[in-house]
Amino acid sequence: MSESNHLIDLVQSRIDEFLFTRAPIVSLISSDLTPLVAFSRQFLSGGKRFRALFCYWGWRSVTPGGGSDGVPTAGPPHDVDLAPIVSAAAALEIFHAAALVHDDIIDNSDTRRGAASAHRLFENLHRSENWAGGPVEFGRASAILLGDLLLGWSDELLDEGLAGLRDPSAARFARREFNLMRTEVTAGQYLDILEERAWRTSREDELLERAMRVIEFKSARYSVLAPLVIGAALAGGTPEQLESLRRFGLPLGLAYQLRDDLLGVFGDSSLTGKPSGDDLREGKRTVLVALARENLDGGSRRFLDDNLGDPNLTAHQIEKLQGIIAGSGAVDRVEALITHQLAEATAVLDAALLADSAMSELRMLAEKVARRAF
């Protein structure tokens, strides 16, 4: 088994163990709360675990060891306690699950990873039990609370990991980075919903810059940069090492989200677990859309602007919007941006004072997140 796969197994075990310890606390309050734990387990099983992997390899890139580059190539030093890094990686995955629950509410998404989103699960529960009131309102309110619960649990799990560190300063620094990540992703989420509504009042020459700002703070930093730095902070990385990981993580995070934007419009629903063209129905004002608008004639631009964000778009309308965007050349321009950001990220590793064995894994991860099909 590869080191990355072993880490994923450890993270899943840690999440399962954590939920097992929290279930009695919730059920002691009331047996009616069972769905909160059951749905948490559902949303925390599987997934690509990119954030956990970046956290771990950020940690491995600066962990002292017995190899010629400071880290053994066959895994972490045998005398190093893995519990803190595994708990931190698991905490990031729980935080991610919370963000997805809230994101699906904001976007009114029906599915997540090929299954019902959290608010739809609660709607279905309401209908199956024939409760009073509206199932939609119950579903949204309950999912908000589930997301809040997961946010709190991610904090608890991180604190359990930090408590196991021998270096209090490393614990403080990792906590500070985690807190910063929370603020940034919340701010980025607000900027995202703001752009969907305020773009008409923005200057045309600012739309691309504003779309790039959204993906940096909503996704790029918390998906790649923050996990890397949190992991390295746990290992007591030097300021120079942390700066290298930041300079690697930001462009790679941008490439990650640019790929996500392409998949949100053109992705295969059987792979992405979301309906094809979902971002078009949700009205996402992405870099892809900003670039498309720059090259469209008046009629095509009006059609795009008038239909983007219509939740009732037909398959034919989706196909027409996809054709307009592809015909504008925006897809090729986004692909070029992804290639540029990926090259910028990997170039940082050429001169970074990081473990060679970890950098090879980071290079493979970079290719995987930038070129993925789901």
Automatic annotation (TrEMBL):
One of its GO terms (biological process) is isoprenoid biosynthetic process. It comes from the Bacteria. Gene3D superfamilies: Farnesyl Diphosphate Synthase. Its cofactor is Mg(2+). GO terms for molecular function: metal ion binding; prenyltransferase activity. Keywords: Magnesium, Metal-binding, Transferase. The keyword Metal-binding applies. Pfam families: polyprenyl_synt. Belongs to the FPP/GGPP synthase family. PANTHER family: GERANYLGERANYL PYROPHOSPHATE SYNTHASE, SHORT CHAIN ISOPRENYL DIPHOSPHATE SYNTHASE. This is Geranylgeranyl pyrophosphate synthase. It comes from Cryobacterium roopkundense.
